[in-house]
Design brief:
flat, 6-stranded antiparallel beta sheet, alpha/beta, membrane, transmembrane, coiled coil, 916 residues, Rossmann fold, 8% strand, transmembrane helix, 26 helices, 5-stranded parallel beta sheet
Length: 916
């Protein structure tokens, strides 16, 4: 199969795009995110179909609404030119295949054409990815050698991964020194039971030890209760922090404001204000002088006339500018707080999967106490019901088995059997399990070979082996050959009849207990129904789950109250700012106010006033008719400069360099007096709940509250476990006093041994499967290894530019030999050389099976650790390799592009400078 053209109607970022594949060695070049991987996924999707929902790792649906799909045109040795068309919304995603002779078909025809190529073989054998090279450096020498040989013999890592899976599953069951595996746990439990039996059998006096343990548990419960009460008090403190967090933010803002503005004493402030008033008096004189001169000018600005008429109003509005800016900053802070509340609420909704309709729940203390009591009762009843139901199921099965056995014995007695009865031969159960598991494991290995090699005849032994394995498990447990006399049969019949009566009596008692439990549960359900209708709880959930969510509901209610308060404050601020904006409406003809915030409007007004004052000064300066005017103006301005210098020197702050900044500073000093009183008032309200030396965030407070609730739940579970252990010890003491616990321990030991035997059989199955995988690997090595090593040696020699001359296997170990006849193990090679060896094994497998598959090789930047020299040798190898197998390279490497350009090879550029 040789790809010739890709027609993309809509796939990922490509729309109505055509890519022509001109040569056997083709490069798709583009920067990162240009769409190289999208090209690869398009080829894979058209050939093998759109992925199912559970398989989707990346969505390539067109974002602009284009039709999802396209065409791939390739040349086949048998069928000639083949066109494969596939669209997501057309024909349920099925392919439309058109041959050169006009014949058409669907996916069945496509599979026939490209067989034995499958999607798995395409991904694992003919696709080279950077991640495969990155994983090599994480393997030790043994696993790396095994991986390289597996890749060379099967084309992929699948056999190695299957062997690893068997090993992991086996180690989950048992490890010689493990603690987590299940058999290890069961063995420890068995050892514990044996120790208990030894203690009871030796009649050691453990009564006092258990009594002391009960006293210790009583102390532990008291300590846990104290810790739980502490956490409860801490929870109340955190809830108060949630409630008072807006006040803390306001206090923090005021504190920051005071830190930025140095407070001056009253006498100095009065001196500064006096000098500012003097500056304003001089400024007024200057304005009067300039206005008197301006009246004599023949041409005046209309805007200036408007300013002169409303000069007093503009001065008053300028005094409000600082208040508008301060209020705007306050509004921004409130918006940020409101956003934090909303994010906290959404986090709680998502984490606990709550419905927004049932948040408003207000339980009285009496109802909550009653609900807690009934929740414990409900849990206990459900637990008892499950235990009794399991016991009933076990007894019913036992009763059926006994009835069957009684019927058999009764038939023997009725026919008066005197000769031995042959009931069928049976193989040992363990042996039968092992051979059945072995048959299924071998079937799985043959199935892997069938998929990897594409040989359909291999499926026949797969079916036969699966049938044998299933038959072995189904026939497990058949009766063995036995010989019995009529007297023995009658004796056995009486014994089984007695046991059957005991089982029937036990079933009767269990039925009565279950009826009582069902009655109690029905009574609880009636009460739950009332609460469900009153508070909106779900009947499908337990009352324990109800109670666990109530604190979350209360937290959400608090957040909603804060949101409402914030929203109300924002509305009030917007109203006040709107009133300030309305004060400027009279000047909208001269000042651009449309689509501007109040703060921006006041800044525009300030700019307008400055322009008119500048205009006045320029007009006055251009007049040469009044020398006295100039003299007076110069004198006033000198006085203004002196006054300004005096004001700035008295303030003496680096951030105050102009008279306007000095006026703002004085305004802030006036405002800070009121803010200081507010800060002290807030500090009294929050100092008991906040460490004022620290900074707080609402999200952190909410997370802290959640951690406290989790800690309370853990303490409750700990207390419950202590109480359970206390009750268990109390029961054991009672049993020891009755001296009736030894039989129970014996039964527990037998049950544990039975479980261990079953788990051991399962462990043996995985062990055999692992060994069979190794045998299959060895078989493939014996059959294909000589040809493989010869091809790998040839490719590796080319890739290393003659540095290494041979790849060989000696005593099961993989080695390479250099041009000085020195032998090197794989782990001694550099990272780039190991990558070259891996590439040689992959290409060798494709070369050896090119007649079977005939698929193109697609390499996505598969030279991660290659330097320039190694890249050149790789491209030389690919040039020769592409003569019998098409090679498509996807890369953002400039060295790759330079090589293709230097050797006049085909390049398709995608991205900014190419196709997109």
């Amino acid at each position: 199969m040789k790809l010739q053209q890709l027609k993309i109607d809509g796939f990922g970022k490509f729309n109505n795009q055509v890519f022509d594949v001109y040569s056997e060695n083709q490069l798709f070049f583009g920067e990162n995110e240009a769409g190289k991987s999208t090209v690869y996924q398009f080829i894979r999707t058209i050939l093998f179909g759109f992925p199912k929902k559970r398989e989707i790792l990346r969505d390539f649906t067109p974002v602009n609404g284009a039709i999802y799909g396209g065409k791939v045109i390739f040349e086949d040795k048998v069928y000639g030119k083949v066109t494969v068309e596939r669209f997501k919304e057309k024909n349920k995603g099925q392919a439309l295949v058109t041959l050169e002779n006009g014949q058409t078909g669907n996916d069945l025809l496509l599979e026939k054409i490209i067989a034995p190529l499958t999607k798995e073989a395409f991904d694992q054998v003919f696709s080279f990815q950077q991640e495969q090279l990155s994983e090599l450096n994480q393997l030790n020498e043994v696993r790396l050698q095994h991986l390289l040989l597996t890749v060379g013999l099967t084309g992929s890592e699948r056999l190695t991964k299957m062997n690893d899976t068997f090993l992991k599953e086996r180690q989950k069951l048992f490890k010689p020194s493990g603690r987590v595996p299940e058999i290890n746990q069961k063995l420890r439990q068995l050892k514990k039971i044996e120790q208990q039996i030894e203690v009871v059998e030796s009649q050691e006096a453990t009564y006092q030890d258990k009594t002391r343990r009960m006293n210790t548990l009583t102390g532990l419960v008291e300590e846990a209760e104290k810790e739980k009460n502490y956490q409860s008090d801490l929870e109340k403190t955190i809830l108060e922090q949630q409630k008072r967090f807006p006040m803390f933010i306001e206090w923090e803002s005021l504190t920051k404001e005071f830190s930025e503005n140095n407070q001056e004493n009253a006498s100095k402030l009065e001196e500064i204000n006096q000098e500012v008033r003097n500056y304003r008096f001089l400024l007024g004189k200057e304005k009067e002088l300039l206005e008197s001169q301006g009246e004599q000018l023949e041409t005046q600005s209309p805007a200036y006339h408007f300013y002169i008429e409303n000069q007093q109003i503009f001065e008053e509005l300028l005094d409000d500018q600082l208040a508008v800016e301060s209020m705007t900053e306050r509004r921004q802070l409130l918006e940020e707080q409101l956003l934090e509340y909303q994010e906290s609420k959404e986090t709680l909704y998502k984490k606990y999967r709550l419905s927004k309709e049932i948040v408003a729940i207000n339980l009285s203390d009496d109802v909550e106490e009653e609900m807690m009591s009934l929740a414990k009762e409900e849990e206990e009843l459900i637990r008892e019901k499950v235990v009794l139901s399991n016991e009933k199921s076990r007894l019913v099965i036992r009763q059926k088995d006994m009835n069957y056995a009684l019927t058999t014995v009764e038939n023997q007695l009725s026919t008066d059997v005197k000769h031995p009865t042959k009931q069928g031969n049976k193989i040992d159960p363990l042996t039968q399990k092992m051979f059945s598991g072995l048959a299924i494991a071998v079937a799985l290995l043959f199935l892997v070979l069938a998929v990897a090699l594409g040989k359909t005849w291999i499926y026949l032994p797969v079916i036969i082996l699966v049938g044998l394995g299933v038959f072995g498990f189904l026939t497990l447990g058949k009766t063995k050959t036995s010989t019995s006399t009529p007297e023995e049969v009658k004796e056995d019949y009486l014994l089984q009849l007695s046991e059957s009566d005991e089982v029937e009596h036990s079933l009767y008692e269990l039925e009565n207990q279950l009826v009582g439990i069902e009655t109690n549960l029905a009574s609880l359900q009636n009460k739950k129904q009332d609460w469900s209708e009153a508070y909106g709880f779900s009947m499908k959930e337990t009352m324990t789950l109800w109670l666990s969510r109530i604190p979350i509901y209360l937290q959400l209610q608090t957040i909603q109250e804060k949101e409402a308060e914030m929203t109300k404050n924002l509305a009030e601020i917007d109203r006040v700012l709107g009133s300030y904006s309305d004060l400027l409406s009279f000047a909208k003809q001269w000042i651009p106010l449309e689509n501007r915030t109040p703060k921006e409007s006041y800044q525009a007004m300030k700019h307008f006033v400055d322009e008119q004052q500048t205009y006045l000064k320029e007009q006055a300066l251009s007049s040469n008719t009044h020398q006295s005017f100039q003299s007076q103006l110069n004198s006033l301005r000198n006085n203004l400069t002196d006054s300004k210098t005096k004001v700035l020197s008295m303030i003496d702050l680096p951030q105050v360099t102009t008279i306007d900044e000095a006026l703002i500073w004085l305004k802030k000093q006036d405002l800070s007096k009121a803010s200081q009183s507010r800060k002290a008032e807030i500090e009294l309200s929050i100092e008991s709940y906040f460490d004022l030396a620290k900074s707080y965030k609402l999200v952190e407070i909410n997370q802290h509250l959640i951690r406290i609730k989790n800690k309370e739940d853990e303490l409750a579970e700990t207390i419950s476990s202590y109480q359970d252990e206390f009750q268990a010890l109390k029961y054991e003491l009672g049993q020891m006093e009755k001296n009736g616990s030894l039989d129970t321990l014996y039964q527990q030991r037998e049950n544990q041994l039975s479980v261990i035997r079953d788990l051991s059989d399962e462990w043996m199955t995985y062990k055999i499967a692992e060994e069979l995988t190794q045998d299959v690997f060895q078989y493939l090595s014996d059959q294909q290894l000589p040809a493989l090593l010869a091809t790998v040696t040839s490719y590796f020699k080319i890739l290393t530019d003659g540095t290494y001359l041979k790849v060989l296997v000696n005593n099961g170990q993989l080695y390479v030999r250099d041009n000085e006849q020195r032998r090197w193990s794989i782990i001694q090679l550099s990272t780039g050389t190991k990558d070259q060896l891996y590439m040689a094994f992959r290409l060798a497998f494709v070369h050896l099976h090119t007649e079977d598959y005939g698929a193109p090789v697609i390499i996505d930047d598969g030279w991660l650790h290659f330097d320039t020299k190694r890249k050149v040798t790789l491209f030389k190898l690919l040039s020769g390799f592409s003569k019998h197998t098409q090679v498509i390279c996807l890369s953002s490497d400039q060295a790759v592009k330079a090589y293709f350009e230097a050797h006049d090879l085909s390049i398709v550029t995608i991205g900014k400078d190419g196709l997109n």
